[in-house]
Amino acid sequence: MADRAGTAGAHDAQGGAERTVAPRPATEPLVRFDGIVKRFGDSTALDRLTLDIHGGEFFALLGPSGCGKSTLLRLLAGFETPSEGRVLLAGDDIGHVPPYRRPVNMMFQSYALFPHLTVAENVAFGLRQEGLPRREVAARVAEMLALVRLEEFARRRPDRLSGGERQRVALARSLAKRPRVLLLDEPLAALDKRLREQTQYELMDLQDRLGTTFVIVTHDQEEAMTVADRIAVMSRGRVVQVGVPAEIYEQPNSRYVAEFVGDVNLLEGRLTSSGPSGSVIASPAGRLASTQRIDAVPGATVWVALRPEKLRLAAGPPGDVAENCVRGTVLDIGYLGSLSVYKVALDNGAVMKAAVANTTRLVEQPIGRNDRVWLSWTSQAGVVLTR
Amino acid sequence: MTDRTTPWSLRLALLVPYLWLAALFLVPFLIVLKISLSQTALAQPPYLPVLDPGGGLAGLKDFLAALSLGSYAILLSDTLYVWSYLKSLEIAALSTVILLVIGYPVAYGMARAPRGLQGVLVVLVILPFFTSFLIRVYAWISILQHDGLLNRALVWVGAIGAPVTWLATDTAVYIGIVYSYFPFMVLPLYAALERQDERLREAAADLGSPPWKTFWLVTVPLSRSGIIAGTLLCFIPIAGEFVIPDLLGSSSTMMIGQTLWTEFFANRDWPVASAVAVVLLCLLVAPIVIFQHHEARQFDDGR
Fold it and tell me: Is pTM, for the whole model, over 0.80?
């Protein structure tokens, strides 16, 4: 999982200046969606979508419900056929190959365990279809049950298992045939928060050990960021942005991505000037400066996206109040333990969020409700968005 | 069943079905059982002994001493009864298999039909109930008779040269039974298939199972409850069927229901008729008890 480690440094606020290209394997992609259109009657679920997924990746399709992410997964599984375009697996067009002849397996959101079969029979189902010898099936089932630590449940029926155990049976069943690609459709949605977080790390560990390509569909941005090597953010049947989690978070390419992934403050303004040294934006909140170069004509409407944790909150004015600095009143404080989120009402009426790490053990915070405060940020902290 | 903590209101509610079963099933059965142990007589009622409540303890003793298994001995001694039983079971078993083979695809098609259409299809299946059962069986007579609709249609199409005898054959009985019991097979199958999770079939396909295999490995096993319900709902009443073989069959298709009717109304031999009914009941209850036992054991295995 070199990707995940390699981008850890991008978490500091200085990373905003250079648009780094995500490290991508140089090899041919394992899965390629090529100009996919999928229509259901009058509605278009996928609209000329093109996307590459590489071998060995943990890839997340992220988006709100109805954005087409599940349809894309079902296209890869073979439950839907594309209206237009091609689905390529290792270079072969599999768009019209039936699901039972595809070397991909899916873990269903509802798990779809066979209620009339035991845990072991569920896991063995796919292997029996391959016509493997009985002894080999038994060995592989034992291996899979050991992998998800369910050995002692082999003879139980699914309705006698807890939600977390069923989830593991479903995982074992979908991995038993050693698929080229494992598809996970909201695999953790039915688990409670603590179990979900624990299972996320188990999935990552499993993917690391097996080296299988995982494609996960989720609407939970934290889940996608935690587990995935790369994320495709989708909206209305299209991919809006593809990148490693830090790239999606720190360098969103649109207001949609910035707002969907994490908390963000968006300041609207007009571009005054842009050059190699950076750009200047005039906004109701004052002059905004960024080291980022913008491909837009002066006068164009742009937005500066600022993550709450990139803002500095202070009771007094910072050194330079001419730019990247606003004044307001604390409206509300959300105390989350590790950090506190301050909602600040600016003098022009807008509300901004600032997250401050609670590095001391003081119960009484130095800044309270209704206090006058200053918010400031460096010229690398924000991302200037043109759409 | 009810323990100390069960509130009296719940006990009262539980009492209702038990009273119902006792009054309308158990008591009549005991009366029939008692008659089957009596002797036929030219009297009113036409059997002996009759329990006289005024006779006291001695009267009860005389009454019990007069009971005998004579009617059951008659059932065993005369091959007519044995053959009727076997014929009934044969017709019931074969018709149930035919019903299952025809009914399953119909129920499957209904369950896969668009949601909006399913209600219409269910109504169509139960539509025959809107006319009297007798009228529908009589209608089959006019279809199956020598110059009936079926023969005329077949001659007109050229499938047969001359009219064929349908009526008063086993075929006519099977046609009548399969037609009449069709809804009783289709509706439980439909109910079982309709609630099946579509994702399970997708999961089977995903794991490499082609559609025909998925049908046998997933769809059929999961519709087991519907298959059992439909089979019992058809097999049991068909075994005791009287009207259809009487109207569409011949003397060679003598089912036990007809034998029973003859004993009651033609021979006025109530004890033998009652014995016929008791044996039929035992024959039909046995498979249900075995099945129940099997179900309970399987449920325990799943724990």
Answer: no
Q: Does residue B150 register a pLDDT over 60?
A: yes
Q: Which residues of B touch A174 (CB under 8 A)?
A: 206
On whether any CB of chain A is under 8 Å from the CB of B56, the answer is no
Q: What is the CATH number of the domain that holds A36?
A: 3.40.50.300
pLDDT band at B166; cut points 50, 70, 90: confident
In a domain, B143, yes or no: yes
Q: Which residues of B touch A116 (CB under 8 A)?
A: 221-222, 224
Q: Residue A271 is part of a domain; what is its CATH number?
A: 2.40.50.140
- pLDDT on residue A26: 54
Cα–Cα–Cα angle for A341, A346, A348, rounded to 5 degrees: 155
How far, in Å, CA of A220 to CA of B242, rounded?
65
Bridge partners (DSSP) of residue A333 are A342
Would you list which residues of chain A are within 8 Å, Cβ to Cβ, of chain B? Answer: 77-79, 98-101, 104-106, 108, 110, 112-116, 125-126, 129-130, 156-157, 159-160, 173-174, 177
Mean pLDDT to the nearest integer, A209-215: 89
Q: How far is the C-alpha of A115 from the C-alpha of B79, rounded, in Å?
A: 48
On chain A, the residues whose CB falls within 8 A of the CB of B220 are none
ipTM: 0.78
Whether residue B46 contacts residue B40, with contact meaning beta carbons closer than 8 Å, is answered with yes
